[in-house]
Amino acid sequence: MIRGDRVIDEADVRIDAETGRIEAVGDLDPRGDERVVDLAGKTVTPGLVDAHVHFSLSGERSVEDVVGMSDAELTLVEARNARKTLEAGVTGARVMGARDIDVALKRAIDAGDVPGPRTVANCRSITITGGHGHHMGREIDGPTEARKAVREQVKLGADFIKFMTTGGVTTPGSDPGAVAFTEEELHALVDEAHRRGVHTATHAHGGEGVKAAIRAGVDTVEHGTFLDDEAIDLFVERDVTLVPTLSAPYHIVRNTEAATKEDVAKTETVYERHIESFKLAAEAGVRIAGGTDAGTPFNFHGGNASEVQFMAQHAMEPLDAIRAMTETAADAVGLDDCGVVEPGVYADLLVFDDDPLSDLTVLNDPTAVLKGGRVVAGAVPGGE
């Protein structure tokens, strides 16, 4: 049993050592010779859930630095980044796909062979021929190919389907504001995914692309950089989740000397507008899930908690920002047994010396990270 002065929502947490799940929460009395971990003066929270990461990328200047890697090399990169992410306090993650490796990594994590967060995995992001992310994605043309691509992903074990509705910042020659897919292609992608029992996520910067994807029935929109009132209304009306990924442009604009000229030019165009769109969405009550886009240029794995600070800095109350990257993110990506401190869920917990609600930067340095009730990083009094 964990006993501490501060736990978000509750006071004491009893963990079933065999299942790794929380058995009870509240004002608990120890049972018999039950071991009690005294965390007096510390804070316990749910583990963070990052709704948008790229384990195949490591913050390189350009994605083109990665495309020449062999599958074996890329697998080792992904394993390293998964470990960094877990040790930073992210106990659940939705991984956005590259060369079908993420599903293999997920199986290795589930088997206990590789340390990493509980993973919701994709295979390859679906894009138009020559579209954003084509380097390691699945290029398609037409609704028939769209359906085939979805079926391929599901066959390989994908938990969700990601597709690129607009161009992007980090693909040379790609326009973030331009709609890539036709209406027929978008409807085919979403319909086929839902028929196969998996959810959909779309990369979308431009407002017209966001609206087209929402009308097609997408479940989550990644980035949402150029939102207008109509787009905001559609988010609320259709109960679609926004994953703003504020970390991605933040790191590029602060590394302009090292970034590619094209990335800098695009990011400087979108950065302030991205923040404005996020504020509009948050104020309108759009459901927001925290996701970092970790792995994109200079956006290194292990710094994931900064996304909570960005969300709070620009629009959200601290507790709401934490919940966006715990409970809401877990629900949005399908990690039903994560993101909260309550009976029946996995004991994926973070321990802090101080209170994150008083200073969100505390989230950057957990004293201990527990996954399934076991310490996977740091330490608690008396050992694991």
- For the record, the CATH class of the largest domain is Alpha Beta
- The strand order across the widest sheet is 3-2-1-4-14-15-16
**Terminal-residue CA separation:** 12 Å
**CATH architectural name of the largest domain:** Alpha-Beta Barrel
Q: From the helix content, strand content and strand pairing, which structural class follows?
A: alpha/beta
Q: What's the total count of β strands?
A: 16
CATH superfamily of the largest domain: Metal-dependent hydrolases
Helix count, per DSSP?
11
Q: Which fold name fills CATH's third level, the topology of the largest domain?
A: TIM Barrel
Rg estimate, integer Å? 20 Å
Average pLDDT, to the nearest integer?
Answer: 92
Tell the overall outline. globular
Percent range of helical residues: 25-40%
SSE sequence, one letter per element: EEEEEHEHEEEHEHEHEHEHHHHHEEE
Q: Which residue ranges are poorly predicted, with pLDDT under 50 across at least 5 consecutive positions?
A: none
Beta-strand content bin: 15-25%
Count of the separate structural domains? 2
- Biggest β-sheet: count, sense, barrel? 7 strands, mixed
Protein name: Amidohydrolase
Pfam family, one: Amidohydro_1
GO molecular function, one term: hydrolase activity, acting on carbon-nitrogen (but not peptide) bonds
InterPro entries: Amidohydro-rel, Metal-dep_hydrolase_composite, Metal_Hydrolase, Metallo-dep_Hydrolase, OTAase-like
Features:
384 residues; alpha/beta; Urease, subunit C, domain 1; TIM Barrel; 2 domains; seven-stranded mixed beta sheet; 16 strands; 33% helix
